[in-house]
Design brief:
- By secondary structure, the protein is an all-alpha fold.
- The chain has a domain of 51 residues.
- The chain has six helices and no strands.
- The radius of gyration is 26 Å and the shape is elongated.
- Keywords: Membrane, Transmembrane, Transmembrane helix.
Length: 116
């Protein structure tokens, strides 16, 4: 299994956990920066190296994200919210001129309380 991964060049070198915490974007990497003049740079090689660094989404990553996006803990509150608006609209109790300012008050109070 390892040999097939090596032949497919599917090698993911992982950094140590503490290194990832301290420098998640590899800003303090030990590799020297290429400070050569523009005329001496091999731009095609640089583009190839940068393309290798890009991760492509695969089906397993999409499945993991999809499960979290469609969980009941997310869907039930949205269904409750939508049904509440429909019920208010059908009973002629939804007054936008009152709803929006009261929503603004809740946002301001939430913002102030999160700052403290």
């Amino acid at each position: 299994m390892i040999e097939t991964q090596i032949q497919a060049e599917n090698i993911n070198e992982k950094r140590e956990f503490l290194d990832e915490l301290e420098d998640p974007y590899e800003l303090y990497d030990e590799e020297p920066l290429n400070n050569a003049p523009y005329e001496e740079l091999d731009l095609k090689e640089i583009v190839k190296q940068e393309k290798k660094k890009i991760k492509i989404l695969n089906i397993s990553d999409i499945k993991k994200g999809g499960r979290a996006g469609f969980s009941l803990y997310r869907l039930v509150p949205y269904v409750f919210l939508i049904l509440g608006f429909i019920a208010l609209k059908n009973n002629n109790l939804l007054d936008i001129s009152i709803y929006l300012p009261s929503l603004l008050v809740g946002i301001v109070v939430g913002y102030i309380s999160s700052k403290q």
